[in-house]
Amino acid sequence: MKKISIAVLLLGTIGIAAQEQEEKGKQIEDIIIVGNRNVKRTKLETPVPVDVINIEKIQKASPQITVQDLLNYVIPSFNSVRQSASDGTEHIDPVTLRGMGPDQVLVLVNGKRRHTTSLVNYQNTVGNGSVGTDLSTIPVIAIEKIEVLRDGAAAQYGSDAIAGVINIILKKNAGASASITYGLSGRNDGDTYQAGVNYGASLGKKEGYVNLSLQLSHRGKTTRTQNHDLDIFGNNFAYPFADDPEAARAADDEEIRKRGLTRDDFNFQIGDAQIKQAQLFFNSEYSFNDHFKLYSFGGFSIKEGKGYGFRRLPSETFNVVSSLYPNGFQAELGSQVYDISYAVGAKYNVNNWLFDVSNTFGNNTFNYNVSNTNNASLGAKSPTRFYAGAHSFLQNTLNLDVSKNINRFNIAFGGEFRFEQYQIKSGDPASYTQYDVNGNVAGTGSTVIGAGGSQSFIGFSPDNTLKKDRHSTAVYADISYDLDKKLNIDAAARFENYSDFGNTLNGKLAVRYEFLKNYAVRAAVGTGFRAPSLQQQYFNNSYADISTSGSTIVTKGIFNNDSKAAQVLGFDKLKQETSVNGSLGFTLKPAKGLFITLDGYIIKVKDRIVITSNITDSRLSDPDVVGVGKEVESGRFFANAIDTETKGVDLVISYDWKLGGGNLNMNLAGNYTETKITDFHFPENLGTPQNEFFGPDQINIIETLSPKTKASLGLNYGIGKFNFLVRNTYFGKVIRDGYPFGSVQEFSPKVITDVSVGYDITKNINFTVGANNVFDVFPDRQIYENSYYGVFKYAPVQMGTLGSYFFGRLNFNF
């Protein structure tokens, strides 16, 4: 038998370059599911790079406890970013691959397409304007391994697979296991608890099984802010706007003293949101005979989050009811996210023809609750808690896949029918309505005493509500050829028809050739596409944000492409993104235990869908254009606004060495990615300058807000009952543009060090202690202009703002 090296798994560098340790002179390689339909191909024979991550062994020794955090530290081309004070994005971390968007990564579970979240990221975070997949809804305890295909695969899997594919494979083994983790940051906040149990049993006599997983977790909030420079009780939003800033500050200090308070009572809560989650998953298969089997898998997740909006100061009399909040308030945004998935299918094998028919269902619902807030137009009668509405996304996919292996050829073909539905539901009337002084709904010319709706997060109104759906039909075919593991060729083609925008045809060709023993070259070229999500086509709302001048908090709007505002300004209906992918790489095994892979790639995307900057066109002031009850300073729209080009290279080096009676594994993995906008597409009737249509801050998010360079160097040493891990992760520099009221700032590269020590108490019980970011490294502090008057001490860059984090974990296997 052969045991996969833990350190290789810990670093995610095991793709084609991976080395499994040898016992009894034999090598066992993982069969790859993702990227081709040749069930006999291993990860050492694929013509495109595939990482295979053994989650159970990673999670045993790593400080990270969620899927996205684990991958963030083991795959350099993968990034996941926690956000703060960003509405729903605080509760679902956007994830990216190879510098592309969250919606350009396709996620599969057991090889079947998984649904995305219903949330649109629109708070100028990484992945702005995109809709991704929430990896945290899948419990770590339920996962056997994860395959990450680092290559475009739309010709094989359809929409979203421009940057690559993440295939999550659930456990199917018999037996029981459990894990209990507790952790705490070096600042005594952000405490984490996670408990999970997995149980598997055999079914019948033909290798059937059922596997169940339950996981409960809690992540406490963190506070990473500093004293701010806001005019708390004065008539100015911040001291820099006062005629005499020092006098204004002194007046505030005197008022604070009179009220028996301190400035700390007016600090913002800025940091990681609190998250509580419960998950139940299953995976099962039953064989009736050698030819026919049924399978099913899925799960349920409920996540409750608590994040925080901008503080409302007592001086903001139009936003704050002083009788309710004499010292102002900071609203709390509570989320309830329900996620359910279910797949059922049958496989039939006759004369080496494999038929697989399946139906996969998924639904994600995001509910908003706002507390510690008010509707200022109601005065003292205002509630302080509001249900602010919800959005949901449903996806149902029916697949038929047929494949056959004939000598050196593997042929496959099939079809897919997918139905999708997106819905927005309104909240409590008081969460979105502005009332007049008599308590009636305000109209033109009404006398009002304050802003309408729930402060911090304005509820969805009946004008926002909708229920939209579409369907798509696809057929595909692919063929692969293997010649004695020396030559591998894949060719694929896929045709899809969408009910809302039409047809697309895509193809791919990939080749691997071993020109000398242990030395191979591989290359791939293909076209791809990404259909505009229903969320991007129809999401609309009003939201609170900093004004263009930076001097106050105002209401802004997002308008969908069906709106009159979009039509008047000349925005076209959204269409699909199209792409061309190319890659060239080498795999080398120059010495025993030494593996090297080097892969370069280029991805060109045309008509990329983004959300615009805030447009202040005079036509948006017309109530007939904007809509009743939507008094907004500016509007944003989804558009096929840009073309991009992404270039990069992945390097993986792994070396195994028997040392001092133990096994030492050394790994180096790195990624360099650069994305540039190559063209802009403006609506013909829109006279807005580029800085308002797609400004420097939006260009910054695409080009320089994610690190161009990321690398990981790790040592893992196992001897006897002990295992030692030291891992250094390099996060390259990023640039943040604070436009329109901030400045450009460069954040220097940082190295984060993880350490852990594990000990096998018994054959079935392991205890591990360790730390993430043991040296307490933080990103550079933000310059004052970008910090919202000193509130945001750190920018939410890839390495995060948690600081040092220490953990202990017990693992059980029965």
From TrEMBL:
The protein's UniProt keywords, in alphabetical order, are: Cell outer membrane, Membrane, Receptor, TonB box, Transmembrane, Transmembrane beta strand, Transport
Chief localization class?
Answer: membrane
Q: Which Pfam families match?
A: Plug (PF07715), TonB_dep_Rec_b-barrel (PF00593)
- Superkingdom is Bacteria
Instruction: State the InterPro entries in the record.
Output: Beta-barrel_TonB (IPR000531), Beta-barrel_TonB_sf (IPR036942), Plug_dom (IPR012910), Plug_dom_sf (IPR037066), TonB-dep_rcpt-like (IPR039426)
Location of the protein in the cell = Cell outer membrane
What's the family? Answer: Belongs to the TonB-dependent receptor family.
Q: Which residues are in the TonB-dependent receptor-like beta-barrel domain?
A: 334-774
Topology relative to the membrane: Multi-pass membrane protein
List the protein's name: Ferric enterobactin receptor
Q: Cite the TonB-dependent receptor plug domain residue spans from the record.
A: 43-165
